[in-house]
Amino acid sequence: MAFTGWDPLRDLLAIQRGRVAPGPGGWVPPVDIHETTDHYVITAELPGLKREDIRIHVENGRVTLEGVRRDQGTCEQYHRIERGHGAFSRTFQLPAPVDADGIEANLHDGILIVTCPKATDPSPRRVHVTQS
Prior knowledge:
Immunoglobulin-like; five-stranded mixed β-sheet; four-stranded antiparallel β-sheet; 1 helix
């Protein structure tokens, strides 16, 4: 497995080109995508979200993760805010078609794992998230 070092200039250029943009609530959950011989696996960090807060859509080899992290309440004065709140949406184009009926999603301890089996017949489908 190869790791890429942090390059602030590259990251700023990516933001400027629109490749990475915060959602309306100002946050983008971090996501890893890896491939096995028969699956694509998408792992997203979604702390504080429940399965009812997450929607997953699959169409034409694209997987879209959407959701909302609600604000914890009001406060008289914030001293620091680093955790974003509000809606997010991330869409990923997978390299090959996936079997929409075989996709599984599991949320455990704030980590969402979406397993997408490879296929030759792509069809739109909404995926239901389970919680363990």
